[in-house]
Amino acid sequence: MLRFFLNPIARFLGVTTAFLLRSLHRLGRFQRRQRGTTAAKPLHTQQNSLKRTGFRPYSKTFWLGIVFVLLAFVGVALPSQSPVDAANTTMIGLPLSTKGSKIVDSTGRPIVLRGVNWFGIESDLHAPHGLWKRDYKEMLAQIRSLGYNVIRLPYAVQSLRASNVSGIDFSIGANQELQGKSPLEVMDAVVQEAQRQGLLILLDSHRLNDQRIPELWYGDGFTEVDWIDTWKMLATRYKNQANIIGADLKNEPHGKASWGTNDQATDWRLAAERCGNAIQAINPNWLIVVEGVEKNVPGQKLQVHWMGGNLEGVKRFPVRLSRPNKLVYSPHEYGQGVFNQRWFSEASFPNNLISRWETSWNYIATKGIAPIWIGEFGGRQVDSNSKEGIWQRKLVDYINQKNLSFAYWSWNPNSADTGGVLQDDWLSVEAPKQQLLQGVLTANSFIPITASPAVAGTRNPQPTSTPVIVNPSRNPQPTSTPVIVNPSRNPQPTSTPVVVNPSRNPQPPITPPTTGQPQLKVVSNVQSDWASGFCMTMQVSNLGSTKVNDWQLRFQMNQAAINNSWNGTFKPQGTQYVAMPMDWGRVIEPGQSRELGFCANKLGTDYQPRQVTVSMR
Predict the structure, then answer these.
(1) Boundary residue ending a domain (409, 437, 455)
(2) What is the pTM of this model?
(3) Domain membership of residue 63 as a residue range
(4) What is the tens place of the pLDDT at every residue in 336-392?
(5) Which residue, 198, 212, 197, is CA-closest to 92?
């Protein structure tokens, strides 16, 4: 299904051994709203300013032998969070399901989904943001290179009914494949390229119109039927698109939205059941992801919650689906930088946070009711002094401890109140933020494999050839002038554009030879390759028993010129390049890996990187 190749024996032994050893020793503008005594999380604004929102004591040898025999029989590779192979790859069988508090693949093996939100299709640009600066293939390659394995992709009902997109600057030579496409067809292209690059997609019904997030699943000129019909259209269109793993039914129900009240007009739990069952009737493979509400839950213990963060009602009023093993609950969680909620000023802060999280939503996983996937969290501060930084560090530690799935808000830098993983140039990584997240991204790359008869024969599935448009939009044209969040930062392309010009008929992938010294190993992998350029990653692993404090890469590249890079600096020395990691990536603990990457323009046929070596400094 994807352009990834493994050495089965080496990878099996490396990944399985690492897992066993660990197991034997045992996660612009915004509105601030306040209703009564409830301090609410800010809405996405009417522009594009988006927040973000026990082994018994037998010998280790005995257990190792038993498990190896079983694995040899069933042919299953176990995941590793302490990889010894620089390829750092785990195989995930699709489609996904749930078992108790875990999300499991088609073999029944628990997996963890850790990704980013890449917003924009839900805005009045009707396309993922940042495409005025870079090619979408480059963007996806960088997301994967940083260790994320899933993208939460927001959309608006109005956007998918529109005919045109804006905010894509075709004059820089990038994104040519998207020219002339509708928003839905742009979504097709992003999803298909994500599959080729080994990324999963969670679709997110973020808005109804393309201006703001409504309280309920209807309103803003759209009905419940419009909302459900759009989901049914997507379930049909992407039925054979294996890397789309689920549907986040509605972003952040709040205000009048209730849970367990049996009011057909406001009870979000009942609406989620109606919509989820309608999707499952068409596409039974998808996970159905259900967010919480803000308030209006009978008997709730906490008075104040974030929008979408109140899942207290699940205990008494769980969502009932026709296929219950596809249900995932998804809270959103933010810090003081988004809104100064009262609990940030309590004397017990930050020790009060864990109790709040357990009461609000994680009791669902603790009690084995269903898995928890934190659909959004993020913030600008990650230091150990500010309240937002302390909160964010505490939550990342909690995620790591509980082994929870998440989608970080956001990949985009133009989220007014949170910033993003990327800096304002849409190229550089926000190093302190990525460093914080890196600890929960280790060994998080994967190769999705289609393992269910329901999706057999879909190694490279395409959506239906004719776009399915439900009830054409009342006003399908986008605004004539793109509205960019935080325009003063640097939203426009640089004066010297990065020429990418991807081809519809890419060249076969290249596999550069790699070498290394005993303690360090480097593996190079081409993420995408087209007529005029390519993107690749270089992953360095510490195979020794001692910490590496600093390192560098060297390679030869005769007829190519690097136009952007991530996680490191690439300095040319004639036809040689020296690559050095960012400060936060210099140290590699035993069994851990670091990854950096670049995209380059081809200047001739001899463009392949050669003699890739890694050395300690």
Answers:
(1) 455
(2) 0.67
(3) 1-26+54-78
(4) 999 999 999 999 999 999 999 999 999 999 999 999 999 999 999 999 999 999 999
(5) 198
